[in-house]
Amino acid sequence: MTDMTRRQFFKLTGATLVGSSLGLLGFAPGPALAEVRQFKLLRATEIRNTCPYCSVACGILMYSLGDRAKNAEANIIHIEGDPDHPVNRGTLCPKGAGLLDMVHSKSRLTHPEYRAPGSDKWQRISWDDALDRISRLLKADRDANFVAKNAEGQTVNRWITTGMLAASGATNEVGYLTHKVMRPMGLLVFDNQARV
Amino acid sequence: MQRVLPSDEIARSVAQPIPRLRLPDRAAVFTRRAARLDQLATDHPLSGYLRLMAALVRAQQAVLDALPPSSVADDELARAAAHRMPVLPVNDHRRHREWQAVLAQLCERLAISADLPPAWADLLLRLRQMPAAALDEQADSLLVGRMERVDPATAPFLMAALQVCWTSLAAALDAARIAPLDVPGVCPVCGSLPVASIVRGDGHRYLHCALCAAEWHLVRAKCSHCDAVEGVAYRFIEQLAGGVRAETCDHCGVYRKILLQEKDQQVEAVADDLASVALDVLVGEAGYHRASANPLLWPSAEG
Q: Residue B174's CB: how many other CB atoms inside 10 A?
């Protein structure tokens, strides 16, 4: 948005303070400026997001501390309900109130893992391997179970032996993409609800 | 702060819309500000200035208490609402003809207060000798933000008198009859720029008008100057715990302070903004410009 209001921009510096109301009324800004030299300016952010747990999709505010300029990884320090959000008005359920622990959880999954049939061990695999394997299994299942016509001979082109769960916190655009990717394959069983 | 809410409290809070506008409390607005200025003056490098401004603000309350209650005509309210314009427009001080009388009363009250430094006595004299036309011209510059025409020495006093007139009128309004404006970022009552914003204990953020002391709601994590949500950050001084932060915007390069009642119950927009000049200096050095002046501290014209 362009600047529609009156411009009053300025900076308060040693020079502008000397000629300011303060200086002209007989107060030296020196001591205040000397104090400033001992201070360090920190940076925090407050980002609006949506709770990932369920289809209520409560609004949350995520707080992080850290100076991007120093390439430090931003560290999320607090998560709370967004008081302005029409759905939850600042409130969160016990699961949502524990989101910070999920973000920082040591057991949080950050990469694909594979457990071979019969094995009791998970092994880390690459995204390429994971996607290849998923595609191969999807294709095998679709080839075996795709229903082109029903008992009356009408064309139905459905594939109901595979299902998909997408995220409850997904945006409209992600919902659109989910449809565009899954429906053309005949997949009918998919859901954006995280009741699980 | 997280706490467990009883179910009836959740039902109650959801049933009520977020109050869009909070009008000033005529009986206490300046008393609270003066008390906060005095409180902040303790151990402050600018304690002298804060105490003198506290005296000015106390005089504002005394003059406001003595003013007869104001009222705004029904047809003015209806016209403003119909056109989505402020009902007490900032560029129309001549309608508040009493503003120069209020200024004279403020000067009188300050002149009789004890421990007045000589610089102030001279200034009060100068203010009383200023011709009415010159005062009106200064008021125009202050109200529409023509910074290069503002005399920083007299500005806090003139602004104090104008605040009394506008606050008196704003306090007499009914919030339900004030329509939102088409233009974001300015006071829905008078069209002035806000001095700072306050995140109240219930988590809602309100911008505080530098002129009429009305407060209006704005969602958090958003630039109060340009409405951007990307690139907004909060800068604060590590050594000073407390509820004052600068909301900086990388989109428009401007900042305005945001005060957190959760960290300090007593925060007051004008007082806390004035007392946190150190934050202004550091945020200015980090490259951001201040969105608008504090009514009690005007920078030198070449700033």
A: 10
Helix (H) or strand (E) holding A12: none
Distance from CA of A108 to the nearest CA of B (A): 24
Q: Which of B144, B236, B298 sits opposite A21 (nearest CB)?
A: B298
So what's the pLDDT on residue A196?
A: 46
Name the strand (E) or helix (H) holding A163.
strand A155-165
Domains defined along chain B, listed by start? 26-177 (3.90.1670.10)
Q: State which residues of chain B have pLDDT below 70.
A: 1-2, 93-96, 114, 302-303
Predicted ipTM? 0.87
More confident residue, B51 or A172: B51
What is the pTM assigned to this prediction?
0.88
- In CATH terms, the fold of domain A44-103 is Phosphorylase Kinase; domain 1 (3.30.200)
Sign of CA dihedral A130, A136, A137, A138: positive
Q: From the candidates B20, B223, B281, B283, which should be mutated to test the interface with A, based on the most A CB atoms within 10 A? A: B281
Report the relative pairing of strands B194-199 and B254-260 from DSSP bridges: parallel
**B19 near A CB under 8 A:** no
The reply to whether residue A32 touches residue B277, judged by beta carbons under 8 angstroms, is yes
- Inform me whether the C-beta atom of residue A172 falls under 8 Å from chain B C-beta atoms: no
Handedness of CA A151, A153, A159, A160 (dihedral sign): negative
> How far apart (Å, rounded) are the C-alpha atoms in residues A164 and A150?
23
10 Å Cβ neighbour count for A36?
Answer: 20
Output the DSSP codes for A26-92: T--SHHHHHHHTT--EEEEEEEEEE-SSSTT--EEEEEEE--GGGTPPPEEEEEEE-TT-TTTTT--
A194: pLDDT strictly greater than 60? no
Whether the pLDDT of residue A3 is over 60: the answer is no
pLDDT exceeds cutoff 50 at A4: no
Contact residues, chain B, for A80 at CB < 8 Å: 2, 203
In the Cβ-directed half-sphere of B246, how many Cα atoms lie within 13 Å?
A: 31
Residues of A in Cβ contact (< 8 Å) with B293 = 8, 10
Q: Is A97 on the interface with B (CB under 8 A)?
A: yes
pLDDT of residue B216: 97
> What pLDDT shows up at residue A195?
52
pLDDT tens per residue, range A134-160: 999 999 999 999 999 999 999 999 999
Given this model, what pLDDT does residue A2 score?
A: 36
